[in-house]
What we know:
By secondary structure, this protein is α+β, with helices and mostly antiparallel strands. It has two domains: 5-47, no CATH class; 53-205, Aminopeptidase. The protein is built from six helices and ten strands. Strands 1-4-5-6-7-8-10-9 form an eight-stranded mixed β-sheet, sandwiched between helices. Helix 5 links the parallel strand 7 and strand 8 (163-169). Helix 2 crosses helix 4. The termini are close together. 29% of the residues are buried. Residues 15, 77-78, 132-134, 139-145, 168, 172-175, 177-178, 181 line the site of coenzyme A (COA).
Amino acid sequence: MGNGGNVGQEKPWGKEQGLGAGQTMGPRAPRARIFTWIQNPPTNIRVTPPPATLRRATLADVAAALAWSPTRESLQQWAGSTVRWPASTESLWADINAADATTFALDAPPHGLVGFGQVRYREKTFGHLARIIVSPRHRGSGFGRVLCRALMREAPRLHNITCFTLYVFTDNPGAIALYHSLGFEDKNFHPDYPNVMLMEAPLHTMPVEEGD
Ligand SMILES: CC(C)(COP(=O)(O)OP(=O)(O)OC[C@H]1O[C@@H](n2cnc3c(N)ncnc32)[C@H](O)[C@@H]1OP(=O)(O)O)[C@@H](O)C(=O)NCCC(=O)NCCS
């Protein structure tokens, strides 16, 4: 438990559009039906996420995540403003390896390592997603969503939680859009960092999928 598993090849997810069950675009589809389909595409074609596997992170993964973050800003955007800069693999690991944190890496063959993130047990209540980053080369391909969903599957396996939370900088609209798409809602601002927002999602936001 807690070691993840294949997280990408399971049930289709996300945006659903296109052909419905029993519908066909094969050679026998009458012309009128094709025309109707083009005008009003059905809404249940399923987009399969990129296949990927979540596993416990190693120091080599920390080094890779650091290499994806060549500036203080790009590092602190995901690792938090308290991490040291300049950073080494060891200093970053020391700064993020909290006692309540479990650190994961996302592999996606043939790309290799594409993502990195943590599940924390915040206030012994919340499954708190943290330190989420996707390799710059692989952004915009769905791995961020796959990573977050995989972490959200792990959180209740690791801890007795009532809901999911995370912190995000308010000037990170891409990440905020990702979290909204996963069912997170904006909550209050961090008491010490007014540019950091708490987001929260209910446990039932995680759809039950085959293999869970
Ligand atoms: C935020 C991050 C993890 C997203 O990863 P990603 O693999 O690019 O995201 P995905 O391809 O899975 O996108 C999923 C959704 O996120 C949103 N999204 C992601 N990047 C976005 C961007 N640049 N602008 C707007 N929306 C964006 C979209 O809603 C997207 O859904 P859609 O493709 O259906 O429109 C990635 O950009 C990253 O690592 N950023 C640097 C580190 C960071 O900011 N981490 C978050 C710390 S809180």
